[in-house]
Amino acid sequence: MDDLEFRRRLIAEPYDDDEAIKQALLEGDNRQQFGKDMRALDDKIAAALNVDVPDDLANQLLLKQRFTEHKEQNERRKWIFAMAASVTLVVTATFALWPQPHANLADYALAHVYHEPATMTTLDENANLTQVNAKLASYGAEMSTVDGRIFYANHCDFKGKRSLHMVLEHQGQRVTVFVVPHIEAFKDTPAQFEDGRYHGVINRHGEQGLIIIGESPTLVEETSGSLEQAIKWQRI
Fold it and tell me: Which residues cross the membrane (predicted)?
């Protein structure tokens, strides 16, 4: 188990007793210490959440409510209006950024990028080609080389489809790459698309789709050319 996967699993479940985790804990003092730290943190969080509630708390709250009922009515009304406005704003923003059920492949790809802005700015998991190929294998693909750094490479949910989300470096800039299986389930999508901020291309390899998104057409085109030469596809 690589260090990245080891840390991810212990962060998610500090007391994971899976055999793979047990074996990984024996592979170095640093891993053992990390496991202890995660379990200690989990215990602290559990202790902090374990707060005793006074037996008469309900009566105290009811009594206070009776004394302040008239004043709180006005304040509650203002709060309800403010909350309604906030919910409306969130719903509006969500519909603006997330495509509707019949949206095409490009819409979903762009929405995914906007939904995780850190991947195009600061996120850096310093992945390597071996890790990428381990994930690409389930899509019938293998990458022989990469031009720059690999900032991010993990599986993601792409409208219910388990897909691969990568962020690569090309000419010092970040480029998002999706590998999406069974793209025939999406509406017809042009091979090139843009929304005013991002540009993208979709390269089809059988039932698999390779989607490349960047901030300029040249960046996307060059990355597409490099990946088409570097990735070999097999029928799965």
Answer: 79-98
pLDDT band at 84 (very low <50, low <70, confident <90, very high): low
Please tell me the distance from the alpha carbon of residue 97 to that of residue 133, in angstroms, as a whole number. 31
d(CA 87, CA 66): 29
- Residues with Cβ within 8 Å of 200's Cβ and at least 6 positions away in sequence, in order, are 106, 109, 110, 192, 193, 194, 211, 212, 213, 214, 220
Instruction: Kindly state the DSSP code that residue 86 receives in the 8-state scheme.
Output: H
Q: Residue 87's pLDDT is what?
A: 63
Sequence-distant (≥ 6) Cβ neighbours of residue 125 within 8 angstroms:
4, 151, 152, 153, 154
Helix (H, G, I), strand (E, B) or coil at 134: helix
SS3 label, residue 206: coil
pLDDT single digits (tens) 129-184:
999 999 999 999 999 998 899 999 999 888 788 999 999 999 999 999 999 988 87
Distances (CA, A) of 162 to 50, 106, 144, 151, 192: 37, 17, 23, 20, 23
Is the separation of the CB atoms in 42 and 14 below 8 Å?
yes
49-58, 102-111, 222-231: least confident range: 49-58
Q: Which residues contact 147 (CB under 8 A, 6 or more apart)?
A: 168, 169, 170, 223, 226
Cα(113)–Cα(131) distance, rounded to whole angstroms? 22
Rounded CA gap, 115 and 24, in Å? 33
pTM exceeds 0.70: no
The Cβ of residue 207 has, within 10 Å, a number of other Cβ atoms equal to: 15
